[in-house]
């Protein structure tokens, strides 16, 4: 515990200008508009390369959840720059949501690259409040690297279940807390406060599989995998899907 606190203090000193900007109310708007879209694009490029085979495996059965009419209506929470579009089946009707509206440039590029999809609308919305989406109106909800930064995981999952039609599915791929006895978890504890400040509320220590188990899915498939991002405390991930 003492070692964690000492190393946390060292990180605070190293990141002092950011803490000062945050205190003055200047960091959050700059992070949301400039820094986070820029850095997330760079991180996503690395993460997408490492996770591609896992995403191919994860999304391979998306078409199984088409509605009786044959349509596949998909809602993505935290779309960001749209790196998942390439994995969605042709003809899929996609509604994009994100709490941050400043990803439009890279999002537009990925839309142009993936014209096999029909893009319905872009909603500025938090995962905990999808009131703009009618209940039972979508076949699939997708969420990748988003549950780490929502204000409330349980509220987000309640919204997921609300907007899904009966028999619809929620697909996820998220980084999670490491084993408590591991060095990776030690560094997650050290980095946690500064990491959360710099990366727009991203939490390193969430045990998201527990939240998923507590949600009221009729069927839940969770797989623990490892995707190491160089020079970061992120490695353990979970992926899978839950059926309403």
UniProtKB/TrEMBL annotation:
Q: What is this protein called?
A: MET7A protein
Native species: Furnarius figulus
Q: Which domain of life is it from?
A: Eukaryota
Any Pfam family: Methyltransf_11
Please name the GO terms that the record assigns under molecular function. Answer: S-adenosylmethionine-dependent methyltransferase activity
Q: Methyltransferase type domain spans which residues?
A: 75-172
Q: Which UniProt keywords apply?
A: Membrane, Transmembrane, Transmembrane helix
TM spans, by residue?
Answer: 6-27
């Amino acid at each position: 515990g003492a070692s964690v606190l000492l190393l946390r203090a060292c990180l605070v000193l190293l990141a002092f200008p950011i803490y000062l900007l945050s205190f003055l109310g200047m960091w959050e708007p700059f992070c949301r508009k400039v820094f986070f879209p820029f850095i997330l694009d760079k991180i996503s490029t690395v993460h997408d390369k490492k996770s591609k085979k896992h995403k191919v495996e994860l999304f391979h059965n998306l078409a199984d959840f088409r509605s009786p009419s044959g349509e596949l209506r998909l809602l993505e929470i935290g779309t960001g720059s749209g790196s998942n579009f390439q994995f969605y089946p042709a003809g899929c009707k996609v509604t994009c949501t994100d709490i941050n509206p400043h990803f439009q440039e890279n999002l537009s590029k990925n839309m142009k690259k993936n014209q096999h999809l029909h893009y319905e609308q872009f909603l500025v919305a938090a995962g905990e409040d999808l009131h703009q989406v009618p209940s039972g109106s979508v076949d699939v909800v997708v969420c990748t690297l988003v549950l780490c930064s929502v204000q409330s995981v349980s509220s987000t999952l309640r919204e997921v279940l609300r907007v899904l039609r009966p028999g619809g599915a929620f697909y996820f791929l998220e980084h999670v807390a490491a084993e408590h006895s591991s060095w990776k978890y030690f560094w997650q504890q050290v980095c946690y406060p500064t990491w959360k400040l710099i990366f727009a509320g991203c939490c390193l220590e969430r045990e998201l599989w527990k939240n998923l188990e507590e949600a009221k899915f009729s069927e839940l498939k969770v797989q623990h995998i490892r995707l190491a991002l160089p020079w970061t405390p992120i490695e353990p991930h979970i992926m899978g899907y839950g059926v309403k």
